[in-house]
Every structure is written in structure tokens, then in C-alpha cells.
Design brief:
The protein is of the alpha+beta class and about 250 residues long. It has six helices and 13 strands. The strands form two sheets. Strands 5, 6, 7, 8, 9, 10, 11, 12 and 13 form a nine-stranded mixed β-sheet that branches. A four-stranded antiparallel β-sheet has the order 2-1-3-4, with no helix packed on it. The protein binds uracil.
Length: about 250
């Protein structure tokens, strides 16, 4: 990890401030003064000192956050409530969200100060599975399932790696609309009574931008509800309630 990134995660200052400290010669790695912000460090092996303070043993924390619809994955925003606006009981310095969820997507979001954990979960080469519960307008039959399970073109030259899908419900909107409403489906327009809708679980092994929505769109389906229910072995604790959070042990991963 970059030295400046590590030190800002270690909460000694913003990335900009940290660069100043590094250029000033206030930072040593294994006894040597290092003046290069991009210098590569391994915090579990290298002895990193800022002035006379050892920075290698910062407590790593991770929180499970149940993101509600309507809030954005950002530190602050002038118009919208952000994920960090919900974290009122904890010191959020140095914390960041692992990846992002769209404004209207809800569910599991991890918040941490651990760059290594972030790398472990986000690096596309690690193929960490993420499962989403969805409702769409449209029908998912054998051909759509085949395309999902073999990998599909989602535009802009991007091909997904094979994913997994389990369809739970297929039926008419007029029959299922009460269930959809109760589960929090959004942007359902009128005059769709004769349309078919489907729900289910989709598991992807990467995290391309708007990936689930883009996959569904290519299949002719329109997402009206999306909730991330798990990342790797970590499963959303529904008892938290929307907007709730709790600290979790990193050994969960
Ligand atoms: N895929 C999406 O389309 N949106 C999300 O928020 C997450 C995955």
C-alpha cells in the first residue's frame, strides 16, 4: 500500500497533509527517512514511524452498515444524506466504505479503516462473491439464466464473469404488486398491471459499475429493487434495521 494512503488511514491527517509530513522528512520506514508519498509499505511487516510515534499498530476496525435507499455512498454531500451521516456514535476519522452502492440500492455496506481488507474484497482478481436480492420488471427464463451463468456482454466492451442466479418468483405485476410494495420496490409506474415481474438472488464475483442493473437491462429487464445481502461469508444482519450498523470482527472474512 502507498505510504501516504496508509498514514491517512492511520488518522494522522488528510492525504494532502500526510504528503507534507512525508516531504518534510517526518516519516521513517524501517529506520530510513522516506520522502516519497507513493513508497510501497507493508504495514504488517514494516516499522512505520511518524515523528517519534510508531504507526504500525493502528487498530483496524470494520462495521457492517445496513444502507437504506436514498442515501449515497460518500463522506459528505450538500443535497443528500450520506452513509457517514448515519454513523453518529463512532469516530469516523480514517473510515471509508468498501466499494459503493447506488443511491436506490439498499443492504450490506462495509465501512473500515483497513486498506488491506479493502484490497482483499475489491480486487477483481480475488473474485469475492456478492449476492443481491432483486425485483425486476421482465421475465427470467432458461435463456436469460444461461447468459448470466456463462458471462455476458454488458456494454462498453465489458464481459461479466459467470454469475449465479436463483429465480424465486415470476408472475404478473397485478398479482404481486402488494408484495413488491411491501418489500420496498421503487419507481414502479402505473399501467403495468399486465406486465411480468420476477424476483430472486443474483451472485456476482466482481463489482463493475452498476453491474446488476446493466446485466438485467441487457436481458430486457428493469430493476425496481436491489438489496445486497452478502459479501463473501459476511451476511447482512437484518435485525440492524435500515440505517443501523455494528462492529464486526475481521476474522469473519
Ligand atoms: N449493481 C448495481 O447495479 N447497483 C448497485 O448498487 C450494486 C450492484
Amino acid at each position: 500500500m502507498r505510504l501516504d494512503k496508509y498514514l491517512s488511514l492511520a488518522q494522522i491527517g488528510t492525504r494532502k497533509k500526510v504528503k507534507e509530513y512525508i516531504y518534510r522528512g517526518d516519516v521513517r520506514v524501517n529506520g530510513d527517512v522516506i520522502c516519497i508519498p507513493a513508497f510501497d509499505v507493508n504495514p504488517s511487516k514494516d516499522k512505520i514511524m511518524y515523528q517519534e510515534k510508531e504507526m504500525s499498530n493502528i487498530e483496524k476496525v470494520c462495521y457492517m452498515f445496513y444502507k437504506p435507499q436514498g442515501c449515497i455512498t460518500a463522506k459528505q454531500d450538500e443535497n443528500c444524506r450520506t452513509v457517514f451521516d448515519y454513523l453518529t456514535d463512532i469516530d469516523t476519522t480514517g473510515l471509508f466504505a468498501v466499494g459503493r452502492l447506488d443511491k436506490n440500492t439498499e443492504g450490506l455496506l462495509l465501512i473500515t479503516n483497513d486498506g488491506e481488507l479493502n484490497h482483499l474484497l475489491m480486487n477483481p482478481e480475488h473474485h469475492v462473491e456478492k449476492t443481491y436480492y432483486f425485483w425486476v420488471f421482465g421475465r427470467i427464463d432458461a435463456e436469460e439464466i444461461r447468459r448470466i451463468e456463462t458471462g455476458m456482454d454488458i456494454g462498453d466492451g465489458e464481459i461479466t464473469i459467470p454469475a449465479k442466479i436463483k429465480v424465486l418468483t415470476t408472475g404478473k405485476y397485478s398479482v404481486l404488486r402488494e408484495q413488491m410494495r411491501q418489500e420496498g420496490c421503487y419507481a414502479v409506474k402505473r399501467n403495468l398491471h399486465r406486465e411480468e415481474v420476477s424476483s430472486g438472488y443474483l451472485t456476482i464475483f466482481e463489482g463493475k459499475k452498476h453491474q446488476v442493473k446493466r446485466m438485467m437491462k441487457r436481458l430486457g429487464c428493469h430493476v425496481v429493487y436491489l438489496k445486497r445481502v452478502s459479501i463473501g461469508r459476511v451476511v447482512l444482519d437484518e435485525t440492524l434495521g435500515k440505517g443501523g450498523y455494528k462492529r464486526i470482527d475481521e476474522r469473519c472474512f
